[in-house]
Amino acid sequence: MNNNYKDYDPKLFKRGFKCDFSKMDLLPELASNGFIIVRNVLGDSQIKEFRKIFEDLYAKEGSLAGTEVSQMIGIRRLANLINKSKLFKQIYLNKILLTTVLFILKKPFKLGSLNGHDPLKGGGLQEFHSDWKHPFDGNNHVINSIWMLDNFHISNGATRVIPKSHTIKQSIDELIENKLDDHPEQVFLEGRAGDLAIFNSHLWHGSYVNKSGEKRRAYHCYFVARQFPQQTNQRIYLDEDVKSEMDPVSKYILDID
Ligand SMILES: O=C(O)CCC(=O)C(=O)O
């Protein structure tokens, strides 16, 4: 094991966290291109359960679904998910994911948010954007992951990314005139239900238009360097009974104590 990992976030390890280095071979690609796809991270029964949670929450919340973060026309969105099912622990505490977050950020971090996203037929096209909204200072502060609950294909709105754009110092607005347009260097994060895309979210990315109408449900599990605000402030959004049942690693990752 590379001992540096403990130095990146000593408090996380003091609470009992252990790295999973089984996908180390993918990490050079993540550093260089800005994204990787880890195959078959969720098994069939997990996919089924997470799809059911998506549908049940969307049906229950109706017109309010996604409002804690943002609603988007043509996309079914969910937000504040940690508060809504204990099963999401399987996502935000996934050791492959958290080891990868340490590899990229190399400093203490916390969950930024956990949201749901499903582009509907004819909808889904997002502008290319970075999740880092400030000028790039040469350090990585944000990393995102897309947990595929359905097959992701160019035809149903798979995420598009511009490889290596996470290293560009200029802002996207300076370099891309129309951020909805196709870009000659764009590639699609295609995969199967159960796959996990992890990307340095300084990378320019966005969901694409769902032409086929096939479902393209996903959870976004997003992390931010600890010194910056969360997208969903867990101290405010988590109910007291949910907080009280959390284990020490969860409490640390969610920054609730
Ligand atoms: O799910 C995707 O394809 C990416 C979504 C995204 O980047 C966003 O919602 O900001």
Write a structural description:
This protein is of the alpha+beta class. The chain has a single domain (4-254), classed as q2cbj1_9rhob like domain (Jelly Rolls). Helix content is 27%, strand content 18%. The chain is built from ten helices and nine strands. The strands form two sheets. It has a six-stranded antiparallel β-sheet with strand order 1-7-4-9-3-2. The radius of gyration is 17 Å and the shape is globular. It starts with a helix and ends with a helix. The mean pLDDT is 97. It binds 2-oxoglutaric acid (AKG). 2-oxoglutaric acid binds next to strand 8.
Summary, kept brief:
This protein is α+β, with helices and mostly antiparallel strands and 257 residues long. It is built from ten helices and nine strands. It has one domain: q2cbj1_9rhob like domain (Jelly Rolls), CATH 2.60.120.
Strand order of the largest sheet: 1-7-4-9-3-2
- CATH fold field value: Jelly Rolls
What is the number of domains?
Answer: 1
The major sheet is characterized as:
6 strands, antiparallel
Q: Which architecture per CATH?
A: Sandwich
**Strand-residue proportion:** 15-25%
Structure keywords:
257 residues; alpha+beta; Jelly Rolls; six-stranded antiparallel sheet; three-stranded antiparallel sheet; 9 strands; 27% helix; binds 2-oxoglutaric acid
Question: SSE layout and pairings?
Answer:
Layout lengths: L3 H5 L1 H5 L12 H7 L1 E4 L5 H18 L13 E4 L10 H4 L2 H11 L3 E11 L22 E7 L10 E3 L10 H4 L11 E2 L7 E5 L4 E3 L10 E8 L8 H4 L2 H5 L3 H7 L3
Antiparallel strand pairs: 1-7, 2-3, 3-9, 4-7, 4-9, 5-6, 5-8
Bound molecules: 2-oxoglutaric acid.
